[in-house]
Queue: 2 jobs
Job 1
Amino acid sequence: MMEIVVIKCGGSTVDELNEEFFKGIVAMQTAGKYPIIVHGGGPAINSMLEKLEVEIQFIDGLRKTTPAVLEVAEMVLSGKVNKQIVQGLQRAGGKGLGISGCDGSLLQAVPVDLASLGLVGQINNVNVSLLHSLLNEGTIPVLSPIACTEEGDHLNVNADAAASSVANYMKAQELVFVTDVDGVLKDGQLLEVLSAAQVQELIDDGTVYGGMIPKVKAAVDSLQGEIEKVVIAGGKAGSRKEDGTIKGTAIVKEATATL
Ligand SMILES: Nc1ncnc2c1ncn2[C@@H]1O[C@H](COP(=O)(O)OP(=O)(O)O)[C@@H](O)[C@H]1O
Ligand SMILES: CC(=O)N[C@@H](CCC(=O)OP(=O)(O)O)C(=O)O
């Protein structure tokens, strides 16, 4: 069976990803696994919107996406950030292949709530045969989270949710969220293992807030499929333990330890 690993690169950390990170992904492929990257780019979209003086608004962690915002989000995600990651892979000796979720109807979606959120989508299908062809060609697909509707309209999708959908439709073994913190923290301490129930407690008591909420929710959603474990980890070089393994929070179906 193909061992597929979906790696979500957060926009918060994309500029910090170094050669070691990309070499790690290429090494994963050399070891016989099939990595797929899904990336975000929230901070880069914000800075472009600011330059263009377009209003920025988030509702429950999702960007309100007017047609003007979509144009900028698509340009930044599928143009700038996507190619930055492809370049990182290529410099590390990998066959990075950048593709937007709209190309080949890779990510198909429906609007979440047109009236309040505008052109924001939730994925209801993934073109798995196209992704399998790309994997079988030896490429490392790099997906930007712009999806399309049956009518061919483009929608902006939260990248954590997009990564979780790709992992579920592709029946991935692992899903890793790479972000700008070492994992889920409580009082400054890294929580190494969390169950779905514990994740909900941490949201309810405010320990998990903001951009960490869609990540832990996407992690819990993914555990309903074949995936046994989802990891939230830091992408910076400093986010590694002394033995080189990446620090992180594993979210599992059932955790044994209490918080
Ligand atoms: N309990 C928590 N532990 C760690 N980070 C948290 C927690 N709650 C909220 N956060 C915030 O979530 C951020 C990561 O989410 P986000 O900025 O959306 O990253 P990304 O762009 O990688 O998706 C962290 O930088 C931190 O500010
Ligand atoms: C609908 C929605 O919110 N889309 C996100 C897509 C990018 C993203 O999710 O980037 P991060 O992973 O860096 O947060 C946005 O426009 O910011």
Job 2
Amino acid sequence: MPSKLADAFRSHPVDIQPKNLHDLKELPDSYQWSADQDRPEPEPAHHEPVPVIDLSDPNALEEIGHACTTWGVFQVVNHGVPAAVLDRMEDVAKSFFSLPAHQKLKAARSPDGISGYGLARISSFFPKLMWSEGFTMVGSPLEHFHTIWPHHYTRFCDSVEEYDKQMQNLAQTLMWLMLGSLGITKEDLNWANNNSNSTTTNPRAAIQLNHYPACPDPDRAMGLAPHTDSTLVTILHQSNTSGLQVLRAGGGTAGWVTVPPIRGGLVVHIGDLLHILSNGLCPSVVHRAVVNRDRNRISIAYLHGPPSNVRISPVQKLVGPSQPQMYRAVTWTEYLGTKAKHFDKALSSVRLCAAAEAKDHNNNNNNNGVQVG
Ligand SMILES: C=C1C[C@]23C[C@H]1CC[C@H]2[C@@]12CCC[C@@](C)(C(=O)O1)[C@H]2[C@@H]3C(=O)O
Ligand SMILES: O=C(O)CCC(=O)C(=O)O
Ligand SMILES: [Fe+2]
């Protein structure tokens, strides 16, 4: 079993090369999603917006608790990350994606690797291609940046490092607020106060730059197919162009809800590992990206996970006679391997049978499992 994040995909290589989408005047057949493959359809007419939470508001904790147990996603403002840090990171993404294809391919992700340029890994689970390209960073991007920008790489590396520092801070703050809102403290997680070497030095995040070029036929294309993130939490910065949609399950207003970009705001997604940690109390939100006709769109995801030596399992405080333990313990690397193999069945593949039976018995139809589409 690989222990390093970067080795998570060794046994599930994906080898689909990105194509140059810029000069296409028509949508090729290989990019045409049919309606039953979940291609974008209109939003439900009446729906609640995704909560926007002001972190400086005295009610923030309560609002976070509500958002975590219902939506699994919210936006934050007044989060303390300077706008300039977000802007500089967006510049890195724009500079990278505007390079000619042969330059970007110098930083190509290897089929069994995690870092580098390519299509989203989940592409292998769909019959059609997605209208996007991505660049994944786990640890320092120095090697790749040095190859593509021999004269300017330090400036770009500095922007990434600064972004990483700020996001790590915010991710920790948000994690404790989210767990705190469920009554969980640091003492309830035996790994949270452990500062051993391997806990602090290994990367506990990936940064994903996404680019969705303007698309000649946006209604038939898919930017990024529906998925949940394999993280504790993901913090997403989207440029001023909309495209992110989240699946609001249940009730009369079920359907895809657009998350409008807010200048300086950040989107927070609950990932599968926080769903496991919360013993199913917090849903990991299914989301996707749609594309549009005239505008390029950039998004930057900070995918935050636990230290690599930590096994995540449901917090004991949230397990009891009426809430049996739903999942077995997994490390981040192990879970990424499971996701690479089972994709949307990954959560159910680590679910414990007794809990599943109890749930079926209760005929509980909430959206704790991942239901794509
Ligand atoms: C740490 C992570 C999390 C990964 C895999 C690995 C590095 C890149 C992440 C993404 C980013 C794009 C969507 C996703 C679904 C994908 O294809 O690559 C993500 C995936 C996951 O959340 O499962
Ligand atoms: O581009 C977006 O808005 C979504 C990106 C995303 O879901 C991801 O990178 O995991
Ligand atoms: Fe995502």
